[in-house]
Amino acid sequence: MLLVVCILVLSRSRAHRLPLTLIGAGLALMAMADSGYAFLVATDSYATGNNIDLGWYFAPSLLAFAALTKGATVDQPQTQSPTVAGAMLPYVPLGGAFALVAWRFATGHNPSTVEVVLTGVIVLLVLSRQFLTVRDNQQLAQTLAERDSELRHQAFHDQLTGLANRALFVDRLAHALELHRRDQRPLAVCFLDLDGFKSVNDQLGHSAGDDLLKEVSTRFGEVLSNADTLARFGGDEFAVLLEDRTDAVQVAQALLESLRTPFSFGHRQMSVLASIGVAQVTLVDQTPTVDELLVRADLAMYVVKSRGKADVLVHTAGLQLEQVDDLELGRALAQALEHGELTLAFQPIVDLSSGQLDTLEALARWAPGGHPVSPEVFIRVAERCDLIEPLFRFVLARSCEQLARWTALPGGSGVRVAVNVSPGQLSSRELPRQVEAELARHRLAGNRLVLEITESGGLMDAAASHVVSHELRQLGVRLSMDDLGTGLSSLGRLRDLPIDEVKIDRSFVADVDSIDARRRFVAGVLAFADQLGLTVVAEGVEREAERDTLTDLGCHRAQGFLFSRPIPPESVDALLATPGSWRRGIPASLYAPSADAEPVLD
């Protein structure tokens, strides 16, 4: 038994060959010495000092040398790859048995009963081993086939929903286009992007978002046939391949209608719709490439989003021009935010009673390739391409960084910075944590930061906004309502949110010195704000007469070209180092090169 173990180990192992050989030799020598000793004792022939005793001296020596060999104690991976010797080993005793039986016959002796039985046993053992090997190979082949099928499924299907992924969708689309090229079979691609999915993640968490995607996939599957290919491209984007069908628009409308019924999450319900772009290839169309067809569907979907979302649009040759520019601009803006290629300009807000600088409003600027893009344009693109959140994070981080640096300059310790926030962002429970993290990272007090909430556009969730705004107030952050008078929800927001400051839109400030209606409006706002304890800032002050009238009416602060256009951070450094009255404004030489156009405060 011991010799069999040694032979099996040596025949199957490729690592530690030298130490294993010495161990095997030592064990074999000890086995031979023990066997010889037993035989001599049984025949009453053993005497101390017999040559058989040498085995007991050399066997431990070989074991000791095995431990001293190089690499004997180093952990090396054991390779179980089959060898010729290992494969032939089971047949050695079988060959020996047949050789013995043949030799007995050749010498004129019949094999004994024991020899015949042992030979039969060896044959049965070898046959049993062959059977077990075949069975193991079959099980291994089945396991490998199942694993291969599983890996193929994982490679071509979405892990969350079980739908086809982009790779499988593109493969089937390429095959469908080849059929169109050969047999003029019609096909269409629908590209779907969920509207409002981000709010589900923000309000209910990513787990609820995953559940929503599964439910959406189920509803889409109920609309489509087994011949259609439904795929998830990632995030909240889906694609549908329709082959041999001419009713692509009707199918897309059915997909949209399947989302009309709200989705239930415990005791809450959430509604999401979809913007759907359709790209068709009819019998008479020239066969496009896969990329061309996907771009058409993607473009049509993007145009739907830009026109108000929750609709279906078929791609036509006319869907170029501005819509394409917006799409390309959105991709370029996303890359610019990722690489920190935007800059900030700061427009001062002046205290009218003292003429001193009070706040610096941060305004994003972007000039790809040295060509400035109007803030009004790229802010609109950011809203359509869901880039408002990363844009806000960028402006907040850079503003706090600059404010921390200005604090160390003469005249900078009391200056605040204002950052614009959209109504939808005020519903995000992540906003207070983001603000708190930036303030802590730059060691700034909360009252050094003002968040300006745009007046246009309704709040996404009034209850959530109320909670978020109070959490911001607990940090010391001031809240300002921007563009007062341009929307319909001013009073409601002043009632529901802990607002500290309101900014009168420049449309009511222009010519306030000469237009009596505007003067009365500003006076009314000031009286109303006084009752609520609000600070009032007048935007768009461009003439001294406007400034003087606002001062006489008791307006607290003002902002506009009369005092300063938006300026780069280094210009702020120079002004803080040489403080003076801001009533006179600042030299135009300090203006930001890209700030010649009228600033957009969004």
Task: Describe the model.
This protein has 602 residues and is α/β, with parallel strands linked by helices. It has 4 domains: 1-86, no CATH class; 90-148; 166-320, 2-Layer Sandwich (Alpha-Beta Plaits); 329-590, TIM Barrel. Helices cover 51% and strands 14% of the residues. It is built from 21 helices and 15 strands. The chain has helices at 2-12, 17-42, 54-68, 84-88, 91-106, 113-156, 166-183, 197-204, 206-223, 248-257, 290-306, 322-338, 375-384, 388-407, 431-441, 462-474, 490-496, 506-509, 516-532, 544-553, 569-577; strands spanning 187-195, 229-234, 237-243, 263-265, 268-270, 273-281, 312-314, 343-351, 357-365, 416-421, 449-453, 478-484, 501-504, 535-538, 557-558. The chain has an 8-stranded mixed beta barrel, surrounded by 4 helices. Strand 8 and strand 9 form a beta hairpin. Helix 5 runs antiparallel to helix 6 (113-156). Residues 591-602 have low confidence and may be disordered.
